Queue: 4 jobs
Job 1
Amino acid sequence: MAVVNGTPLTVKKGDLFYVQPGMTIEGKFGSEQAIHVSIIMFRAIMLHKENRNWSVSQPKFPFPAKLDISSQAISIHDAILYFIKRESPHRSDRFTKSRKLSNLLHAVASLNSTQGEGDPQGVLGMERTLAYIAQNYSKEMRIEHLAKMAGFSMNHFTRSFKHQMNMTPTEYIVKQRISKAKQLLFSSKKAKEVAEQVGYKDEHYFSRAFKKVEGVAPTLYIKNKCHRIAALYYGIDDHLLTLGLTPVAALSYKERVSYSYPLPELSGDIENKFKLDSRKSNYEKLMRSKPDMMLTSDRLLQDDSLNQIAPTAVLAHSNQYGQMLEQMAKILGRERQAADWVERYREQMTVIKQNINTRWGTPSVAFIRVSPHFYRVYGAGNQTGALLYDDLALHLPKGFPNREWAKDIQLEEVASFHADHIFIMTDPTDEARQRLQLLLRSEQWTSLEAVRHQRVYEAGDMFFKALGPTGRMWAIDYVASQLRG
């Protein structure tokens, strides 16, 4: 027999309880044999997919991390049976286990939550208040209103808030504003615009509040305090290294390309323990790398929970050479390094264009990717397209729509896209390599003029290299070397 907050419950092996702060559990057992009690602490994640990009967020349980126990114990076995009955037996993909775990926890929470009971400890009220502050930090807030939302008197709310958060409600609101301001400072916005966006009408008052928290003025924060930067998208590590900064963590390329990134400055300077797997959340590695700032791209769905580790700035992606580099250089105080790279690239690009024109005129080039699921022909609206069709002024394959970013095709459609030269990349999976063999043995492939004249080149990891400045410099050299024969 167990007594939970005064309610007697019959307990058997395997029973599952949700315990929240302040809950009293007493046990009385008839046997003299030792009993075993386990406390399970867990962290759950949810995975979302949109436009072929995956993002990670924290699941929103009915009672976030604080679940009331019902008047009847629910065993783990019963909860799993309840969940399995609701699941289709035919659902399966690589993320099924993660989703099932999340759904199971939701199911158990639903069974354990008591309908109509109050919230004696104010847990739900405080959670509602924190959620409200997170969404409305830029608005004017009165402590009286927040206390009423939580269901407390003003004095009790202030004491409870400080006990839970180790700061007053006012300090917490300021912290939320400053955290968002640090993200916005890594953009082209001026300090006055940032101040207004995070809820300060007076720029000077914002500057004083920021300096009180961070120790420096907003205009100096990135240059003076942002020394440890984590790169959360391909190419951002290359941008930082080109500017003379080594990221404390960066994505590993080995999950995306057939062989490792060959440039020593892009692999050796970043410790292996802080190379991030692009298929995982990497929360633990990011926390251990202790970044001052994390940089990601607007091409990814954003994970707001990353801001719990460090402010996450979102960079506007550009396929035009030098544009992102110059933007980052201006913020980080590295304008000279950016200007040097842009000048070298222009000179190299001019020489290569002249050499290609001398040998081939203005040939057409196709860039084809073989994945486990598709054959894809890339157009001009991506990084390799910008390199081939803008920087080097080559032509798109005949029959390719001018405005298409990329086009997924079937094997029988390959012959529709004629090009003088073909660059082909294959994803680093057995399925992709098998699909490549189907392509190479097909009549559609062998009928192509570029194939008959042996003008097909291995693209390797050029697709990902072209996202960064140093990689882009390597890529135009590589294209030139292949077209020279």
Job 2
Amino acid sequence: MASEALKTRRRSDYKFQLEYRTRWSDNDMYHHMNNSVYYYLFDSVVNTYLIQHCSLHPPTSSQIGLVVHSHCDYLAPVEFPAVVDLALRVNKLGKSSVTYEIGVFERGQEDVKAVGEFVHVFVDRESRKPGKQGMADELKAGLSTILVESSKL
């Protein structure tokens, strides 16, 4: 069961947003967006932010982010056709890891539809181990701009 705090999330609780227009193929046989599509969207909003605001260039970066944990609390369905806002923030920023939170909001509605968590550990591309210095400075600086104070978790 989702915590009461997650159910009260609003767009203003997040510092970056990305729009997504649902597709017919996003629906499952129950006529709502399939659970796997939410994870696709989480990956997309996180990587869009990393590329646009953290100087990450996935094909050539010496560091890569490995997903070590993810989960989603589904609060209400989204169905085709809809426009959703994927809202992103960082809840925890460590030396080589980052914990993101993603809120899914349907355009024109205030209640959050789903809240996901996604954890990346940034490692050296070749060794697949965290570097001694942790994540690159540009990466950490970009992520720190969407970091939320622990009292607002």
Job 3
Amino acid sequence: MLTLVALLLTAFASPAISCSESSWITFSRSCLGPPQVWEARPSPGKGIGVYATRVIEPGDTILSEPAMIHITPPEFRDGVAYPLGDINTLLQSSFDALSPEQKTEVMSLHAHMSPSEDANDTLMAIMRSNAYTTGNSLGLFPKGARINHSCRPSTSQYWNPQTGRRIVYANRRIEEGEEIFATYIPLLYSHEARQRRLDQYGFKCTCEACAQEQEARQASDQRRQDLQKAFVAFEPQLTLSVPQSVVGKRKARKNAEASVQLVEQLEEEGLADYYVKAYHIAAIAHARIEDWKPATLWANKGFETSLLADPNARSTGARELQALTNHLIIKWNEELRENMTRHG
């Protein structure tokens, strides 16, 4: 048993596979060098989409891409909109510095414009429709922009400031020929609220979550709203202090049960971006009732999952989960030794 516990310290690392930047030739064949991971081609009703050219396992890197346009907007102040004139100047300057081929690639991207917008503002519309936040900046990643939205995405992404690249990786197994999806919006909202958020991109989502029959969709909506409330409710209880009162202990046991339900509902909805947070909650909730085995297993699961986005465990969140796992392993080992002594 002690050997099993020690094994939890082994770092989890999935193979990372990415396409070389020079291999992007056309929208119909995006990765020509081995191994061929994905290709961009027409997606029914969605323009261009991105498809797996082989089975992609959880943690595999699908795309590692530097920003073609990267701007730092003026400091944002609550209640005051970004000065669009300043942003447009930065955007135009960055665009002007691109090669003709790069300009063509940028201008081929989707640009949702309202009827009141000037057709000359196409570049701004492209940026608004496709850019991602990169820390305090905004980045445009033309290849990744071809990945369509789903409310049950098969990928997650993160910005790596050390390499200056946006990494898109599989958060579940993706089959050969399957379209690859990302999310453009937060997902713990109802179907109706999500559709409103997507209006800024000029389309209505028809993903598997949104296309369900009404009864199933309503059940999904309820789960997502319950999950949102649960995360808020758990936030002030993320402490390792063990309750001493009878009432406190009873509440802690209920919270441990609720934390497992939280994980189960997230996994049922396929909302992988929230898994690490849920596993962390489950680990803390079980530690507060001194149930060290599940606490350790949940913490380690959270740490392993965090490594999908942060293979070198450089982020604060990954390091905290690693430290928590190590702490709980010690507690579990102490419990095992006590049990062995008691029954020896």
Job 4
Amino acid sequence: MRASVLSDWLAQRLDRGNGQPIYRQLHRLLQQAILSRELPAGTKVPSSRLLAAELGIARNTVTQVFEQLVLEGYVTSATGRGTFVAESAPDEIVGSFDAALEQTSFAPAATSAEPALSVRGARLIAGAGVSKRQGGAFMPGVPDVSRFPARVWSRLHTKYWRRPRPDLLTYAPGGGLALLRHVLADYLHTARSVRCTPGQIIITTGIHQSVDLAVRLLSDPGDLIWTEDPCYWGVRSVLHVSGLQSRPIPVDDEGINPSPADLAAPPKLMLVTPSHQYPLGMVMSLARRRMLLEYARQNQCWIIEDDYDSEYRYGSRPLASLQGLDTAGQVIYVGSFGKTLFPGLRVGYIVVPEALAESFATASAELYREGQLLQQAVLAEFIAEGHFTSHIRKMRTLYGQRRQTLLDAAAQRYGSAFSAVGGDAGLHLVMQLPDGTDDRAVAAAALKRNIVVRALSGYYAEPANAPSGLLLGYACVPDDEIVPAFNTLADAVDETLSQLA
């Protein structure tokens, strides 16, 4: 191709109606012309002024394209001489572009096969429980973020940004910000009877990372871990990719209930939610707590205590943490601010025995390279000034009222036929369904009505043999929407049950 006909060749291929920016099309077409030798090495390219005029586009657009081609090695430019095609194409781009010259679409080619995941990757995706919806009636585990004291938080945030401290804008030291660890130690001791020093606290991004860190440091692939059955799907997913051998242990009214056969094969780890079993809501009895602690001491097991929803109990005070009863240093205590403040904060913590503190702090910095120190500083002051405990008191009252509104709506619709468990604590209750009901079908029918609930069977290791029920989160549902939303859900339940009858 002679330089004199380049303008016509380009004009025929530029498509001003396909949504692609003109400069990107021009850049691509010139690349193709050079690589296919349509523009041979040494050819002088028309000036940016002339090419812009002939194509009817801005000169700056052409100049920008020429500059990019120079940087990529396609052309050379010298003041007073002009722009020339380089003697060789860039090494990283080879092959013929003859067929591509006739294309006017710049969309990437579709692949014919799905990329292959690893075995554990496929297992993780197959069992994923994450929802595309993160709020609304009746999404479990989501707090009412509209009631968060944003003005107070903004004031504290502005204070730190007004004169940013360099030490708060870099990577976090092992364990996290010292000030936050200090105020957390005081709060946990007062509120949950956790016995620890600030140095035993490691700041994480939440429960998932805390459990992942503990599993990595305290177990090896193939080791046995006990989990409650049912249990939180997110933690189960962490364990699925850890290489551990997971054994689901049934729960009863007193919490996790290992059989004699289970006790005969001690695990390396056990993961429990003693303050508020997730998802069924029972509180582990003191006798069961003492049994687990003694068993762990005798068999050198580690207990990971997820202190889920311990702040939200309606009508009674929670039992002290399992960690507070531990005298042998076998309990790893984890918690987060996702439910008490707002999920997007992504701040959690793990409390480890003193002998493990340095190793956990080092591993956290090595694996996750944490930051967010400014956010941690704001949170520390938020707690120290009393805003955290004040917010929890207000939300406990609000959530208690919404819980009762939901229970009243259910009683009005179903009377004594309605049965719920786990309703005296936390942010959700479980609506029991008749035996044999496909609770996943009910959840799907509810979703078609814009109501989000979770099927209880999905939290069990063997969903096909699990009891049927629905998890109903009430925390993030405005007061005046609870009754109509429940009636909509009830319509979906009744319709599905009639179809399955």
